[in-house]
Amino acid sequence: MIRRWFFGTFALSAVIITLAAGAPAWASVQPSRQLEYEAAILVNILRFATLPASAFTSPGQPFSICVPLDAPIGLALAPYESKTISERSIEIRRYGVGEMPSSCHALLLEETVQTETLPPHYFPIAMTSEVEPGLACVQLVRVGRQVRFSVDLGVAQRHDVSLSSRLLNLALHVR
C-alpha cells in the first residue's frame, strides 16, 4: 500500500514537473487584477479622446496602442484587441528600450523620453510618476489602492488631441 502511494505520488510529481518545464513562459503568466483595472481605465480614457483625422492614414487603420516591451500592462491590454475605439479596432504594439515606435496613436510611457522624438498626433500617456511632467497628455496616478489620472491640456494641444469634458471632469488634476 505504501509502495503504491509512493510510486503514484512520484509519477504525479514527474508529470507536473514535465508539464511545467515544457510550458511556454507566457502560459503561466496572468495579469494582476490591478493591471487589468489599469488597462480598463486606459482604454476608457482613450475612448474619450479624439485624434485628428490626419493621424490615420486610411479609414480602416486600427487604433494602435504602443506599449513598452517589458511593461506588465501589455498582457492586461491583450483582451482589448478585439474591441474598438471610435469605430477602429484596437491594435496593441510593443516597442523596445530606446526604440521610438511609428504609426502609434497612443504611446504608453514608463520613463522620460526626448520630447522632440514624439511625433504630433500621438496621445502620450504616462504610466508611472517617473515620466517627466509636461510629456504626457494623461498621467496615471495611484492614490492608495485607487488608480486616478491627471490631464495636461497643454500637452494635449501640442499633440492635436481633443479631450472630452466628461473625461476632464473625472480627472484628479487638470493643468
UniProtKB/TrEMBL annotation:
InterPro entries in the record: YfiR/HmsC-like
Keyword annotations from UniProtKB, A to Z: Isomerase
GO molecular function: isomerase activity
Record Pfam families: DUF4154 (PF13689)
Protein name in UniProt: DNA topoisomerase I
Organism: Parvularcula bermudensis (strain ATCC BAA-594 / HTCC2503 / KCTC 12087)
Record lineage: Bacteria, Pseudomonadati, Pseudomonadota, Alphaproteobacteria, Parvularculales
